[in-house]
């Protein structure tokens, strides 16, 4: 390939040029954005490899300038910088960069990117009528190829499973999460409806751009019996209670030492434990159950809920002081219906994932199907969309998602493939043990969902399970 190498650092530029030439590439160097732009008037390139931080004009300025030029052949642009900054990467990719690297540049990573650029350029050259076809694609399909690259790049920087970010609102949420990552002492509260992706955002806060190997420990505050919650969170000493491990047991606080404790569904934590959790946040120490010695802790606390905290406080179910202490850092994730730009992108992301898993061939979404997906209100949010795409990949075959594949599954009254409604079901007879077992099986073992399906309180379900086990 013919590569335009742009870097104001002569030594770094010389080293990279030498390596690229060893790989058989033709390299033209430039020491500034203006110099690079002048060179592109006389030569064509398959790749522009540029530093971001340069005097006067940046690598991102170069992207916009090249996009404004009527070039006979449009090169791919890869940027690199010495600053590990997720927002900078996002800005670069949204400007149109093919990829992004951080210094010191890893040669194996650079080689991999060069291979992908070469493959991408070959596709362009072999499709002369690409522009004509492009005009007939839907608004999402026109962006889909570039957005895939954005998501792959984001995953590498954030250190988490590949996720879908296609709207300004979610870019803002991710930027907030990255900012909170820089201060481990600050508790963060994430609020949003069920299924919007609160745990993923919690992991971005934890991992940041550093691919952290520190522990991320989660605890679902509704999935543990209130009688066992304290020992699960704080651990217990030897002989603390009958039936415990003889030598005692470490709790989630110990397991999360140096890393992050993620308290999911925090609004439902037992009232009697809230003061103890507040002490952990404020004093950075705790007692194990049955213990007399204070244990110091060094953890980041992230909490999440889909409930109305103000209402819980008014009902006396949650301490106001704990709420405000958790809310020092605060993120609200908007529901999917308020960020329609995400819907088609997420649908294709999930469709391809499950198609690959099941050996199916789905690769695209028909414009009419996209229109129907975007117009639906998605009360179950991203989880509902994900489950629908999994169902489609299981039930249907084809290369393109059509409206007929899923339209009967969409209901204007209730979410499809989502969590049971919060309203309790009225029953004409007492709940039997068989009912409980059937509900648990239907809800995949999730006790909160099972209690809602049965129409009984969660604590009642825990009590019945304890009785059944004894």
From TrEMBL:
This protein's UniProt keywords: ATP-binding, DNA-binding, Nucleotide-binding, Phosphoprotein, Transcription, Transcription regulation
Gene Ontology biological-process entries: phosphorelay signal transduction system; regulation of DNA-templated transcription
Occurrences of domain Response regulatory (ranges): 2-118
Positions bearing 4-aspartylphosphate: 51
SMART domains xref list: AAA (SM00382), REC (SM00448)
The Sigma-54 factor interaction domain, residue ranges: 167-394
InterPro entries associated with the record: AAA+_ATPase, AAA_lid_NorR, CheY-like_superfamily, Homeodomain-like_sf, HTH_Fis, P-loop_NTPase, Sig_transdc_resp-reg_receiver, Sigma_54_int
Phosphoprotein in keyword set: yes
Molecular function in Gene Ontology: ATP binding; sequence-specific DNA binding
Protein name as annotated: DNA-binding transcriptional response regulator, NtrC family, contains REC, AAA-type ATPase, and a Fis-type DNA-binding domains
């Amino acid at each position: 390939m013919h590569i335009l190498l742009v870097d104001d650092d002569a030594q770094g530029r010389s080293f990279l040029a030498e390596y690229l030439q060893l790989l058989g590439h033709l390299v033209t160097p430039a020491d500034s954005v203006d110099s690079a732009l002048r060179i592109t008037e006389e030569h064509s390139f398959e790749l522009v490899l540029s530093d971001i931080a340069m005097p006067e004009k940046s690598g991102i300025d170069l992207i916009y300038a090249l996009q404004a030029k009527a070039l006979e052949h449009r090169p791919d642009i890869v940027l690199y910088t010495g600053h590990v900054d997720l927002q900078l990467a996002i800005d670069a990719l949204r400007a149109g960069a093919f990829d992004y690297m951080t210094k010191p540049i890893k040669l194996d990573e650079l080689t991999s990117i060069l291979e992908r650029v070469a493959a991408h350029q070959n596709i362009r050259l072999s499709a002369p009528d690409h522009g004509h076809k492009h005009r007939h694609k839907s608004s999402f399909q026109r962006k889909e190829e570039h957005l895939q690259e954005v998501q792959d790049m984001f995953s590498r920087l954030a250190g988490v499973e590949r996720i879908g970010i296609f709207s300004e609102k979610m870019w803002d949420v991710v930027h907030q999460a990255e900012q909170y990552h820089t201060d481990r002492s600050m508790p963060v509260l994430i609020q949003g409806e069920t299924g919007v992706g609160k745990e993923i955002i919690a992991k971005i806060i934890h991992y940041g751009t550093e691919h952290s190997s520190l522990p991320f420990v989660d605890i679902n505050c509704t999935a543990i019996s209130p009688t066992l919650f304290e020992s699960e969170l704080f651990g217990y000493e030897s002989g603390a209670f009958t039936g415990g491990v003889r030598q005692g047991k470490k709790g989630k606080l110990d397991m999360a030492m140096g890393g992050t404790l993620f308290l999911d569904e925090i609004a439902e934590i037992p009232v009697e434990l809230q003061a103890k959790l507040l002490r952990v946040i404020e004093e950075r120490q705790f007692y194990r159950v049955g213990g007399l010695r204070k244990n110091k802790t060094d953890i980041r606390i992230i909490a999440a809920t889909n409930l109305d905290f103000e209402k819980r406080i008014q009902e006396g179910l949650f301490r106001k002081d704990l709420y405000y202490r958790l809310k020092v850092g605060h993120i609200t994730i908007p529901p999917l219906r308020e960020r329609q730009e995400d819907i088609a992108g997420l649908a294709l992301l999930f469709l391809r994932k499950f198609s690959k898993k099941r050996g199916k061939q789905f690769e695209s979404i028909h414009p009419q199907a996209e229109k129907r997906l975007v117009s639906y209100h998605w009360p179950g949010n991203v989880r509902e969309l994900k489950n629908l795409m999994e169902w489609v990949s299981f039930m249907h075959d084809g290369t393109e998602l059509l409206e007929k594949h899923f339209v009967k599954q969409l209901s204007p009254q209730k979410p499809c493939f989502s969590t049971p409604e919060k309203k309790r079901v009225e029953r004409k007879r007492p709940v039997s043990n068989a009912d409980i077992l059937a509900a648990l099986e239907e809800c995949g073992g999730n006790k909160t969902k099972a209690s809602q399906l049965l129409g009984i309180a969660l604590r009642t379900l825990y009590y019945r399970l304890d009785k059944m086990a004894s």
